[in-house]
Structure formats: C-alpha cells, structure tokens
Amino acid sequence: MAGIEHRQVDGDEAGMRLDRWFKVHFPGLGFGPLQKLLRSGQIRVDGARAKSDTRVQPGQTIRIPPLGVDAKDTKTGPIGGRDLRHSPDGELLSRMVLHEDAKVIVLNKPAGLAVQGGSGVSRHIDKMLEAWTNQKGEKPRLVHRLDRDTSGVLVVARTRGAAQQLTAAFRERDTKKAYWALVKGVPRKREDRISTWLVKEQTPDGDRMRIAKHGEEGADHAISYYRIVEQAGQNLAWLEMEPYTGRTHQLRVHAAHIGHPIIGDPKYFEADINWTFPGGMQNRLHLHARHIDIPHPNGGRLKVTAPLPPHMVQSWNLLGFDENTADGED
C-alpha cells in the first residue's frame, strides 16, 4: 500500500472487534504488527486511538497506515463462504433453499429437523448454518422458529442488519404466514377466529402448552385464523391457518381446542376410542408452513411458497386433494 488510507466501516460490520475487522480486510497482517501499529497510534478510529478489542460501528472511519500487505476483497457474492457448502451440513442446507440473495435466505425445513438445540438434539438448523459463515465471520441468523415436527418456510438473515429488520417485522406483525394442516373432523364454521390464553407447562415429554384463563400467571394471548380449503367427507379437513400471534405450538393447541386436532400430532391429538388412523397415511404431524409474505430489508415484499413434505404429499394424494385448490398462497 503506497500511503495512508481511510476506510469506512460498513453496515454489516456493526459491533465487530477492530482486530477482527483487520483480519477480514487484511488477512496477511499478523497479530504482532497490528498491535505495534495500534500502540503507536498509527491506526485510528474516527481520529482517536483504539485498541484491538474496540468495537467498530457503521460509518466510522478507520485510518490505515502503510501495512506492506494486500487488502482482501470480501465482496464475494451472496454467500461469502460458498466453499463450505460442500460440507455435509452445507450440502443439506443447499437442498433446502427456496430463495437466496445478499440479505435473506429462505429454507424449506424438513419435518423432524430441529431449528435450535435442546435436550436430546444433536443436529439442528442453527448449528448447521455455521457452514455458511462468510469471510467476515458472520453466520446467518435465525429470525423466527418452527416446531421440530413442522415443515416449511424458515427465514434466515445473512447479515446483522438484515436480522434486526426481519426480527422487527415478525415482532410488529408486519408478516403474513399461511400454514396448511390436516385435521380430524370438519369444523362447523368454514372460517373463524380462535382467541385464547396459553400457558407453558413442563411435562415428562417436554414443554406443553395448555389453554389458560385470562390473568393466569405466565399466560399469553394467542389469536389464530383458519379456513377450510377441502374436506374428505366428515372425517378429515384441510385447513389453511394463519397465526396472528406467534406462541409456542399455537396452531396445534388451537386446532385441538376447537375439537379438530392436527393429524399425527404427538402432543395434542387425543383420539377417541372409535377413531382409527387412516390407512396408508403416515402417523406424522400434518402441519406445514406453506407461505410467507415479509418486508425485504432492501425494500418491497418477499413472498415465498414451500412445497409440501413427502408425508403430506402422500396424504393429499390419498385423499384426492389438489394443491392448486388453495388459492391465495402464491
């Protein structure tokens, strides 16, 4: 480098340690030489002396003296660490991708794969995302959750800034999520609003939600909407469900609450003695996050639809349901 250079910290580097920032931009600069430049005040942030653990913020200017090493171009496309995609986790994630750009990835999560770790969970999406850590050391971030046995649309932020915007969109309910469920029986109303209070209980089989009274300690208000898309006689119904709030197991509890539990739900389906599981249908949770409509960090709306998982495709074929019957998801 011929002379002194001044570089601005960009938006995706908020909170990064200064030594990490140099490692990203000047990987050939060793720890010792960096410390020497910091101690002598040759490296400065907004004109002030700084230490290796100084946290930089977007818009700050870093004074860079002649270093004798080349800068690294970190602008390598949407997935900075694309070489890591060839790891087993990276390969599996790649097969799940429904949408990908520089800020957002949308996955079609398989049923049975946990989103985050917990007791007895060895493999989960959050851990697998380490395979997509970019050259700035940023791992893609989860911005919402799906139950382990629920399949479908899962939104992941590629950058810290995108994560903040997407998380705010979920919190402020500026998102529209549609789920498909297969339930026991047929609700009396073709469409309805379900409003209850829910409280979490610890059980030997893990956390379970139950309907609570207003004012009960720890209870949260939960609102869901549903409409019947199709039915198989009076035995089964295909519902499109929309959670207005985002409580744990909300749709599963609400379906059971109105007397029409979701087929294959291990926690909330309590079949009566005369009910038999339909032949040829897998005893797995029939709940799928079908569609999401969310504000994109760059502006506009991102709309993504996830195809049904294999066990639900099998059930839809068995019942003669046509996916195209449910208009409004695309």
Short description:
The chain folds into 3 domains: 60 residues, Structural Genomics Hypothetical 15.5 Kd Protein In mrcA-pckA Intergenic Region, Chain A (Roll), CATH 3.10.290; 91 residues, Pseudouridine synthase, CATH 3.30.2350; 149 residues, Pseudouridine synthase.
Plain-language structure description:
This protein is an alpha+beta fold. The protein has 3 domains: 5-64, RNA-binding S4 domain (Structural Genomics Hypothetical 15.5 Kd Protein In mrcA-pckA Intergenic Region, Chain A, Roll), CATH 3.10.290; 82-172, Pseudouridine synthase; 177-325, Pseudouridine synthase (2-Layer Sandwich). 18% of the residues lie in helices and 29% in strands. Strands 5, 6, 7, 8, 9, 10, 11, 12, 13, 14 and 15 form an 11-stranded mixed β-sheet that branches. Strands 1-4-2-3 form a 4-stranded antiparallel β-sheet, with no helix packed on it. Strand 14 (287-295) and strand 15 form a beta hairpin. It starts with a strand and ends in an 11-residue tail after the last helix.
Main β-sheet description: 11 strands, mixed
CATH superfamily of the largest domain: Pseudouridine synthase
In terms of DSSP E residues, the strand content is 25-35%
How much helix is in the residues? 10-25%
H/E series, N to C?
Answer: EHHEEEHEEHEEHEEEEEHEEH
* CATH top level label of the largest domain: Alpha Beta
Secondary structure class reads alpha+beta
Tell me, briefly, the overall form. elongated
In round numbers, the mean pLDDT is: 87
Termini separation (Å)?
52 Å
Annotated CATH topology of the largest domain? Pseudouridine synthase
Rg of Cα set: 25 Å
